[in-house]
Design brief:
heterodimer; A: 114 residues; mainly beta; 7-stranded mixed β-sheet; 0% helix; 53% strand; globular; B: 111 residues; 6-stranded mixed β-sheet; 5-stranded antiparallel β-sheet; 11 strands
């Protein structure tokens, strides 16, 4: 158990809908990362937050957004869902943002868009 | 060309064999992760290294920054080592970290 929690574990929804994925980092970790793992693209970095502020952006679509709240949990919002958004979404956390800090992964949320 | 190349893509071996998975990358990095993903989907970070070699139990990871190459070795492999192993170099871009990922090596260890 990494100490990172994600909810829900599974989510099934229809095209065009909007969903919110939630991540709680390990106690004391200030940085949260979101990743997408799809069958055709593999694992991809989406976005990083550090202490409430956006820190780095990867291949995140404009239909997707994220935020980190004062209690350090983070949410990833996916809107106007398409079939191709079906994937595993992972969050990870680390103590801070520097290169020497390990990232700990959550169990993931499996999103199925029908 | 992908930024990260792993080989082999699939590997089947007998219990007890010595396993090597290779990772080559084409960009400058600040560190590199080796990740393990079991069939259930969960990801565990096995190692994070920026130079030299690290050992944890039967697992050994090495990195050569100059040659842009890393290897993951498993000694005395066991069926419970069956998983997908993913190499993830960490890029440092404008002070922020970004992981890029290899396509993974699917390892199957038969009893």
């Amino acid at each position: 158990d990494s100490g990172v929690t994600q909810t829900p574990k599974h989510l099934i929804t229809a095209t065009g809908q909007r969903v919110t994925l939630r991540c709680s980092p390990r106690s004391g970790d200030l940085s949260v990362y979101w990743y997408q793992q799809s069958l055709d693209q593999g694992l991809q970095f989406l976005i990083q937050y550090y202490n409430g502020e956006e820190r780095a952006k990867g291949n995140i679509l404009e239909r997707f957004s994220a935020q980190q709240f004062p209690d350090l949990h983070s949410e990833l919002n996916l809107s106007s869902l398409e079939l191709g958004d079906s994937a595993l979404y992972f969050c990870a956390s680390s103590v801070a943002s520097g290169q020497q800090y390990e990232q700990y992964f959550g169990p993931g949320t499996r999103l199925t868009v029908t | 060309k992908n930024e990260v190349e792993q080989s082999p893509q699939n590997l089947t071996a007998q219990e007890g064999e010595f396993i090597t998975i290779n990772c080559s990358y084409s960009v400058g990095i600040s560190a590199l992760h080796w990740l393990q993903q079991h069939p259930g989907g969960g990801i565990v970070s096995l190692f994070m290294l920026s130079s030299g070699k690290k050992k944890h139990g039967r697992l050994i990871a090495t990195i050569n920054i100059q040659e842009k190459h890393s290897s993951l070795h498993i000694t005395a492999s066991h069926p419970r080592d069956s998983a997908v192993y993913i190499c993830a170099p960490r890029l440092l871009i404008q002070g922020a970290q970004k992981l890029v990922f290899g396509q993974g090596t699917r390892l199957t260890i038969n009893p």
